[in-house]
Specification:
The complex is a heterodimer of chains A (629) and B (208). The N terminus and C terminus of chain A are likely disordered. In chain A, helix 11 packs across helix 14 and helix 16 runs parallel beside helix 17. Chain A has 629 residues and is of the alpha/beta class. In chain A, helix 17 links the parallel strand 15 and strand 16. In chain A, the strands form six sheets. A seven-stranded mixed sheet of chain A has the order 3-2-4-5-7-6-12, sandwiched between helices. A five-stranded parallel sheet of chain A has the order 14-15-16-18-17, with helices on both faces. Chain B is α/β, with parallel strands linked by helices. Chain B has one domain: Pyruvate-ferredoxin Oxidoreductase, domain 3, CATH 3.40.920.10. Chain B is built from eight helices and six strands; from the N terminus they run βαβββαβααβαααα. The radius of gyration of chain B is 16 Å and the shape is globular. Chain B starts with 7 loop residues before the first strand and ends in a 5-residue tail after the last helix. Classes of the chains: A alpha/beta (629), B alpha/beta (208). Chains A and B meet through helix 1, strand 8, helix 11 and strand 20 of A and helix 1, strand 2, helix 2, strand 5 and helix 3 of B.
Chain lengths: 629, 208
């Protein structure tokens, strides 16, 4: 029996519509390109990364794109381009704006010259982030307009509108996206590119040099601009009402929450805000008068709700709706039932109990040896950082003691050192940070360690790429955003320049476990900053070279399980046995196999294997025959 | 009847690196070629690192929310046995689960922290759900390349869609014609093998 009955035939006009299936990120990139933007900059970060990736596929003469070292620099590059008279674009994930905020909070005073759109992508629901933030807050904080698309088509349209709005009011515009915009694909009707215009920089210190006297004069202009923007929002076509006959609850909503509201309550009146900040309060007040109860549906903070209540508009919001995580029809329906005093429908079938599948490091990842080694060290506290290597906090290594923000391993380690009490006086403090994260915001922390004579051993895991977001280039890659050769930072020279003694700097092969262990043990004993720099590439980038795969000689495997502690996903336990040691202690033996098709022969698991049961897989039949073509 | 009722909901689930997102994209392209409005979304934050991937595809005259609500999936396509079980509660009454019986065991299971479900197919059937189960990985390997599993799974879906199987096949082959024309024929065979596996699995219940 077919699961789905055939749908009725669709109109030919729909069938012939040549729209493109684009993710929100792709739609924004397309609109940026069509808007004649000349400079676009970003630091990669889920869910925002693809915007710059897509833009970078354009010729550099057509559109300048760069991976910046961090979000603040990316915003500053964009600010400079706007000052220079070129339309500019900058994209970042929500936490990126925390880094960029210093520039943002003054850029709002100078305002933009050529159009400037800043796309900020909120990871609502924390699929790949250390926290959850509502970036609409920046609109209130920096007195800037916020546009909130509800799907790919709107992401496209609002980006284009953003450039017009930016130039009309000389204001940077924040395009607020969420994961459910960035990574949802929908059909988009695209258009043609307008020719980019390169204006000129007009010397004007009162506008661009924000010393106190100049800045003070700009603040009233900023507030005046905000009033004008509010008036514009009141009449914006992006703020509109979906009529509905069931007036018991009227909804005010924005962004992807609008889709969920429409899906869950197709007969309710809905005021949809696309140009959501400054909030069109008069429009909302008039709408509120047409419904019995007003419910504000927003992801995630009650920003609009608080504003409406302050304006004397009676409404509900977070008293019925969750303040964290993504909204969806199944979240909204029971909340509205409670608001109406109706009985809440029983949930659909409960999920089956299935093991979790946490993300793992890749087969042969150069980080595996580092964490295997760190897990062996006793009496250490290890400050971690943001990247693939944050996974070292998980099974089987459990090797990280902190993760806060990009680059934080440096300062946190120094604080752990300086703040230690008597109980921790003999503990060694280690910091672990990746190449890109070190260049993003770790360098300053290391300088702080050397300047303040901290006692921290630092591991810079240089795998030459931004691994977690999919392998973007950075100054450690030796490549630019287009893959063309670019200057490659020399970490040994860099950390020496930051004050680490040359004899305390070591380049180390992370696949050589005994060397790594010996160096770590020695350096942690020395009461001054040391830096170990690993020198092998990410297994997912072109520089990685596969070696002969390994297999397990089952006759020799004693089930000791040492190789499992490496944490390589290619090593699988085949069977377990209970055994009693000579000491009388009961142990569980774990006999393993290596998934030879996945193994790339890094040789890590051989090293802890005492019986030498791991051997080259010389005669393994290749099941991947097509790959040779 | 509300237009939302005509939306088809397909949930494709598996593990990062299995090609779940690509398969859903091909399915989406087939739906678009029939004039449907389409939305496709997945939660795949760290999918490349062996995590769970669930790709939602909704198509019809007009699609609003991109997510399939629990209890509203018409079809669940599991690229891995335990993943099909993980998501089967999102199926609507009378819906269908198609699943690859191949097991991909994560380190947390291999390391002894958790157990792999003894019989995922039986567990899903115990919920009164119709399951078509087959070893897509074995079929792909038989055809010479593990990566053909994607076309095998798409083939298995082909007779459960509101459009003819050929539409989906054309959508697959279009991709290969553009980039790897030498792969067109073997993918066509993988697709047909998937269709057969699905048809046969109705008669002969399989255990994962």
């Amino acid at each position: 029996m077919a699961a789905i009955s055939p749908a009725s035939s669709l109109p030919a006009s729909v069938a012939s519509n040549p729209r493109r299936l684009l993710s929100g990120n792709e739609a924004v990139a397309r609109a940026v390109w069509e808007s004649g933007v000349r400079v676009a900059a970003a630091y990669p970060g889920t869910p925002s990364t693809e915007m710059l990736e897509v833009l970078s596929r354009n010729s550099p003469t057509d559109l300048y794109t760069e991976w910046s070292v961090n979000e603040k620099v990316s915003l500053e590059v964009s600010i400079g381009a706007s000052m220079a008279g070129s339309r500019a674009f900058c994209a970042m994930k929500h936490v990126g704006m925390n880094v960029a905020a210093d520039a943002l909070m003054t850029f709002t005073l100078t305002g933009a010259n050529a159009g400037m759109v800043i796309a900020v992508a909120d990871d609502v629901g924390l699929s790949s982030s250390q926290n959850e933030q509502d970036s609409r807050t920046w609109g209130r904080f920096a007195h800037l307009p916020i546009l909130e698309p509800a799907d790919s088509q709107e992401a496209y349209a609002m980006t284009k509108f953003g450039y017009e709005l930016s130039e009309q009011f000389q204001v940077p515009v924040i395009l607020r996206l969420t994961t459910r915009i960035c990574h949802v694909k929908g059909l988009v009707q695209t258009g043609e590119r307008v020719a980019p215009v390169a204006g000129r920089f007009e010397k004007n210190p009162r506008r661009w040099v924000m010393v106190p006297g100049h800045a003070k004069a700009r603040i009233p202009l900023m507030f005046e601009r905000e009033q004008q923007l509010r008036a514009a929002a009141e009449t914006s076509p992006f703020n509109s009402i979906d009529e509905g006959h069931d007036r018991r609850v009227g909804f005010v909503t924005s962004g992807p929450a609008w889709m969920h509201v429409r899906e869950a309550f197709p007969n309710a009146p809905v005021l949809k805000l696309g140009f959501s900040c400054p909030a069109p309060v008069a429009m909302i007040r008039a709408f509120a008068a047409t419904v019995d109860t007003l419910l504000v549906v927003e992801e995630t903070e009650p920003l609009l709700e608080t504003e409406l209540k302050a304006a004397g508009i009676t409404c509900h919001g977070k008293d019925f709706l969750p303040r964290i995580g993504e909204l969806s029809p199944e979240v909204l329906k029971p909340a509205v039932a409670r608001l109406l005093g109706e009985s809440v429908a029983a949930p659909a079938a409960l999920p089956a109990a299935v093991f979790p599948r946490p993300p793992t490091m890749c087969v042969a990842c150069p980080h595996l040896g580092v964490y295997y080694t760190l897990a062996q060290l006793k009496n250490v506290t290890i400050a971690g950082d943001i990247g693939c290597y944050t996974l070292g906090a998980g099974h089987p290594w459990n090797a990280l003691d902190s993760t806060i923000s990009m680059g934080a391993s440096m300062g946190v380690a120094l604080g752990l050192d300086k703040g230690r009490g008597e109980a921790d006086k003999d503990k060694k403090v280690i910091a672990v940070i990746g190449d890109s994260t070190f260049l993003h915001m770790g360098m300053q922390g290391l300088l702080d360690i050397t300047y303040n004579r901290g006692n921290v051993t630092i591991l810079i895991l240089d795998n030459r790429t931004v691994g977690m977001t999919g392998g973007q280039a950075n100054p450690a890659s030796g490549k630019d955003i287009h893959g063309a050769l670019a200057p490659r930072v020399n970490f040994a020279q860099l950390v020496e320049a930051l004050g680490v003694k040359p004899e305390r700097i070591h380049m180390v092969d992370p696949y050589q476990l005994p060397t790594l262990f010996k160096l770590l043990r020695e350096e942690t004993k020395i009461a001054e900053p040391s830096v170990l720099i690993t020198n092998r590439p990410c297994v997912l980038i072109d520089e990685y070279q596969k070696q002969q795969a390994y297999t397990v000689d089952t006759d020799k495997c004693t089930g000791c399980g040492n190789c499992i502690d490496v944490g390589c996903p290619a090593i699988q336990v085949q069977r377990r046995e209970k055994a009693v040691k000579a000491s009388g202690k009961e142990v569980e033996l774990q006999f393993v196999a290596i998934e030879t098709a996945a193994c790339t022969g890094c040789g890590l698991c051989l090293q802890p294997c005492a019986p030498e049961a791991i051997i080259p897989a010389v005669a393994v039949q290749s099941i991947n025959v097509m790959k040779k073509h | 009847m509300n237009s939302v009722d005509k939306v088809t909901n397909i949930l494709v689930v598996g593990i990062g690196g299995q090609g779940v997102m690509t398969a859903t994209e091909i399915l989406a392209e087939a739906a678009i070629s029939r004039g449907h409005d389409v939305k496709k979304t997945e939660v795949a934050g760290m999918a490349q690192r062996g995590g769970v991937v669930s790709s939602h595809l909704r198509f019809g005259p007009k699609v609003l929310s991109p997510q399939i609500a629990p209890g509203e999936a018409d079809l669940i396509v599991g690229f891995e046995a335990a993943e099909a079980l993980r998501w089967c509660h999102t199926l609507r009454p009378g819906g269908l689960v198609l699943m690859n019986t191949a097991r991909l065991v994560p380190p947390v299971v291999s390391g002894g922290l958790y157990d792999y479900p003894a019989d995922p197919v039986a567990e899903i059937r115990a919920r009164g759900i119709e399951v078509h189960a087959f070893d897509a990985m074995a079929i792909a390997i038989e055809l010479g390349d593990m990566r053909l599993g994607n076309s095998v799974m798409l083939g298995a879906m082909a007779d459960h869609l509101p459009f003819p199987a050929d539409v989906l096949l054309a959508s697959i082959l279009r991709r290969f014609q553009a980039r790897k024309p030498e792969m067109v024929d073997v993918n066509r065979r993988a697709f047909e093998a998937g269709r057969r596996a699905d048809a046969q699995s109705k008669q002969a219940p399989v255990t994962a």
